[in-house]
Amino acid sequence: MKKKIMFSKTPLRFILSRDFNYQDLCFQRSVSSFISKKRQSEIKERKIIENRRSKKVQPGEDADLPVYTFANTNKNPTSNIYAWGMACFGALGNPEFIHPAKKTLKPLTNCHHPVRVSRMELHRVKDVACGYGYSVFAAKNKGSHLFGTGINNQGQIGYHEERPGHPLEVLIAPSPIKLPVDKEDSVSRIECGQAHTLVLMKSGQVFSFGSNAFGQCGRPVIPNEDYMRSQVIHPVKIKDLEENDSITDIECGINHSMVLTKSGKVYSCGWSADGQTGLGHYDNQESMERLKGDIDGEKIVKVACVADNVLAINDNGDVFGWGNSEYSQLHMATEEQQVNSPVKLNLGDVGKVLDVASGGSMCMVLNDQHDVWVWGYGILGQGEPAQHSSKPLLLPPTLFGRNEFNPDAVTTSVSCGVNTSAAINSYGDLYTWGKNKGSCLGLGSHLDQFFPLKVNLGGQVKKVCLGFDHSIAMCKPYNI
Length: 480
Hints:
Helices cover 8% and strands 39% of the residues. The protein is mostly beta strands.
């Protein structure tokens, strides 16, 4: 059978059999063409790979290779920031928790598991600090060095306003804090107290802002000062700091502050009702002064405090303490409940100490065998019955990941919140225990935890900061 078909006025003659289907023919041709192109692409890629292996790759040929993009391949080794705990005041840096995108969702009060703070990961965070209901982030970017979020009723995260003369008491997302520094300078360390913040710059300059009711900002106390409306970032001055010495670290208690110098000297100011300034008296201190006592002549390498009891270690691994000892924190040196001058602690079998941490009523040290020792009052980590000890108690290393499968897992650092404790091991795993106010332990529950338990995080933990009711961790992604 012959049939005449017109295509664009051009006659085309062909023979059609009864079983012929024009659509099937088009489909077969398209499939054959697709397979042929795919094979050609595979052959081309194989040749390029073979040339690369034989070191015969030519300039420009790399552009023909397939490109695969993986997550977390930026240059920042600590790009993942996680936060958890009390969420209703904005301290977690996720505004969606307070103002959900969907109207059907309710605002989140507590976040009982770690959640990424994606807004801060774009700024290459280098340090974090947690206060009472607020958080501060130090960034590596050139534009803004510092960011804050959460409660700001006393100016603890700087001055912020939506309209002139109306400062914000709460920030639900990280906002820049302007510092009076040169563009070349950058933030080295940050620390937070109950309602004041210290910032250490790379140049060695220290700045303070927030509440100065007890002189904790290192400046004279002004009666009835309105801290929330203050727009001044104050430089902290140390009168008797030697010319060849410089500030290398900072630390905050609830309402007092300390700085550590390169030569190992400690200076402090602020509230001293329990002797936490260590200056030999119980009066509030408005300016930074050097501590003496048993640390006079010693080279202190770290001080630790989140409340009103302070621990310090020297370069030989000896431990010193001062401040509140109502819960037997310093009973290894004295029976006094308030110690206003540094005393050396006799830790017995603990040995040389590598790291120290001090909470609201308990103390913790890490020795050179990477064993964790605790004492004081509260949830010490040995189960519910053990809640008080005037001498160090050893926490079994198996609680921190050491077992037959991971015999080389050792604890590398310890930290304390007011009522919480944490430890990081050599695998970058984080373990927390203690009071679980606001679900600040990050263990997926609101219940207290009586022994160390691993926190589920998507990276190797490099630093953890324990606030009063929330926590923040800096992590290195696993694939970097």
